[in-house]
Design brief:
InterPro entries: Kinase-like_dom_sf, MAPK, Prot_kinase_dom, Protein_kinase_ATP_BS, Ser/Thr_kinase_AS. With 599 residues, this protein is α+β, with helices and mostly antiparallel strands. The protein contains 21 helices and 19 strands.
Length: 599
């Protein structure tokens, strides 16, 4: 760093200090960013930083600041940039911290800088929600969405455009609540129609949107053209899917006749089709599949689910777009556990039907039959408890699906919970087999399976092997929740959940479960009928056996179907699937399947 002569400090942030400096070897002005967040020990470590990786990948674009050098000296990292006088996006990354402070200007040239918060488009969520200065933060980030995408940059651009017209921030606020109030007062309060995901996110954190009709943006920006107002309005849409991409924004009428900026020879001017979001589903895919996206209905760690209409036959479907990684061949997709298991069990009436598997532009789309909602949603909106008849019919169907899955299907689910049970009227189906494993599969399995409150004790205690009995434990917890409309084993940690389990069913003993060397809290347990006063003795008995400490003491799905609780069950099985028949209730799962087959 001896060749760089420091002139003055020109900026300071959470992770570093920026100095204007002179390269004494060639007389060139540069900006040197000294990283102050931690120590650095090798060049390889520095080259793996997001900001360095992303800028190396985009180093030749004329509108993205150029990284000239990365230097480690005395465990301090220095990033040397081209110098801009004061304070757009290549395929593969989104910025996540777009604001005027991170846009550098020299004369009439502007460049995007500070990619320290950038993420890869196909990167693995969840992302941190503390991104961007609060004034430019998209609503989904303010509401702590676990996953977000490049549309957050487009929201920030809408806010920046307004600021260019008015010379003051549009959504300035001293807290997230205040910023959300400002957003609602300008663009109006969201509804289930305009942003159903937002309503779900708000409900998760007990947030209630303030009621506003919104204002006409032209009254805030009297000098703006109708084209400018229209573009800003679309950029500031509640739903991320309604915001245009950067490519689409470039083709907006607001830019017609724009003489600047002539793209660098290395970068062709982007072209796009009409103003449609290809991030919800690629346009080519939508045309080929003849499916019209209606709205986003769910989002998880691995994918986003959309309600869609097959315009050929007016059939509603659910389209799951996998966002966790790129896919390069149909063979690769067909080998995924979720796809393999669903293909093997495609005709059971209580397992959700996978209709089609499509790979388009390295993105995998799974097309399912459409169901109205999840059991979680249904329970959340109920004001009165389920009757035992309703519970019996729902559970009978779930056990039918599990019996087929564990038997003919050869899989166990491992992530059974109300969110993964889909309901339409009085029909319920098992869904989301992304964590499923083959019954005869080779352990060890990952212990992080299922939401903690439905996780079997052996999984909580990190058993190297587990089997289909983990699904039966989950069913016991779900049955209680159907009676009470609240989770039985809520806990903020594994220890907390174990404590709750012991307090309900009593601490295990060497007789009931001798497998683990763990010090359990001492509890005698409670009579389940005191927790479930409306439940019959048969229901209490079935739940008690499902919630047994020892996996071997839990009934199988087939055995559960023959429990007295289901005598007289009114749900008629599908004609293709005869009701299962059983020998006496004897469990031979004390030994793994591989050992039993040898014996």
């Amino acid at each position: 760093m001896e060749k760089y002569q420091r002139i003055r400090e020109i900026g300071r942030g959470s992770y570093g200090v920026v100095f204007k400096a002179l390269n004494t070897e060639n007389g060139e002005l540069v900006a040197v960013k000294k990283m102050t967040d931690r120590k650095y020990y090798s060049r390889k470590e520095c080259m793996n930083l997001r900001e360095v990786r992303s800028l190396c990948k985009m180093r030749n674009h004329p509108n993205i600041v150029k990284l000239k050098e990365a230097v480690v000296q005395n465990n301090i990292l220095f990033l040397v940039f081209e110098y801009m006088e004061c304070s757009l996006w290549h395929p593969g990354y989104f910025h996540r911290d777009l604001k005027p402070d991170n846009l550098l200007v020299s004369k009439d040239v502007i460049k995007i800088a500070d990619l320290g918060q950038a993420r890869e488009i196909n990167g693995e969520p969840p992302y941190t929600d503390y991104i961007t200065t609060r004034w430019y933060r998209a609503p989904e980030v303010l509401l702590h969405a676990r996953a977000h995408d490049s549309s957050v940059d487009m929201w920030a651009m809408g806010a920046i455009m307004v600021e260019l017209f008015t010379l003051r921030p549009l959504f300035d606020g001293s807290s997230a609540t205040e910023v959300m109030l400002k957003i609602c007062s300008v663009i109006g309060t969201p509804t289930e129609t305009t942003w159903s995901l937002g309503m779900y996110l708000a409900n998760n954190i007990n947030y209630r949107f303030p009621e506003f009709l919104g204002v006409d943006l032209s009254s805030l920006m009297p000098s703006a053209s109708p084209e400018a107002i229209n573009l800003i309005s679309t950029l500031l849409s509640w739903s991320p899917c309604a915001r245009p991409t950067a490519k689409e924004a470039l083709e907006h009428p607001f830019f017609y006749g724009c003489y600047y900026h002539i793209p660098h020879p290395q970068f062709d001017c982007v072209t796009s089709s009409r103003m449609m979001r290809d991030r919800a589903l690629p346009l080519v895919f939508k045309m080929a599949m003849r499916r019209e996206i209606i709205k986003e209905i769910g989002r998880g760690s691995y994918g986003v689910v959309y309600k869609a209409l097959n315009t050929e036959n007016d059939e509603l479907v659910a389209v799951k777009k996998m966002i966790n990684r790129k896919y390069h061949s149909s063979k690769e997709c067909m080998n995924l556990r979720e796809v393999k298991s669903l293909c093997k069990m495609k005709n059971h009436p209580n397992i959700v039907k996978l209709k089609e598997v499509i790979v388009q532009k390295n993105i995998l789309f799974l097309v399912f039959e459409y169901m109205e909602c999840t059991l979680f949603d249904r329970m959340r909106h109920r004001t009165d408890p389920y009757s035992e008849t309703e519970i019996r019919n729902l559970c009978f169907q779930i056990f039918q699906g599990l019996a087929y899955m564990h038997g003919t299907g050869g899989y166990f689910h491992r992530d059974l919970k109300p969110e993964n049970l889909l309901v339409s009227k009085d029909v319920i189906k098992i869904a989301d087999l992304g964590q499923a494993r083959e019954i005869n599969g080779e352990p060890p399995y990952t212990h992080y399976v299922s939401t903690r409150r439905y996780r079997a004790p052996e999984v909580l205690l990190h058993a190297l092997e587990h089997d289909s009995s983990v699904d039966m434990w989950a069913m016991g917890a779900i049955m209680v929740e159907l009676f009470t409309l609240r989770p039985l084993f809520q806990g903020s940690s594994t220890t907390d959940v174990i404590h709750k389990i012991c307090s309900v069913i009593g601490s295990p003993t060497d007789t009931t479960w001798s497998l683990f060397n763990y010090r359990f809290p001492e509890f005698p347990g409670v009579d389940l009928s005191s927790l479930l006063p409306s439940a019959s003795p048969e229901a209490i008995n079935l739940i008690s056996t499902l919630l047994s400490w020892s996996p071997c003491a839990r009934p199988t799905a087939k055995e559960a179907l023959e429990h007295p609780f289901f005598y007289g069950c009114s749900h008629i099985p599908h004609p293709q699937f005869e009701r299962v028949t059983l020998s006496p209730m004897i469990r031979n799962r004390a030994l793994p399947v591989r050992v039993r087959s040898r014996i």
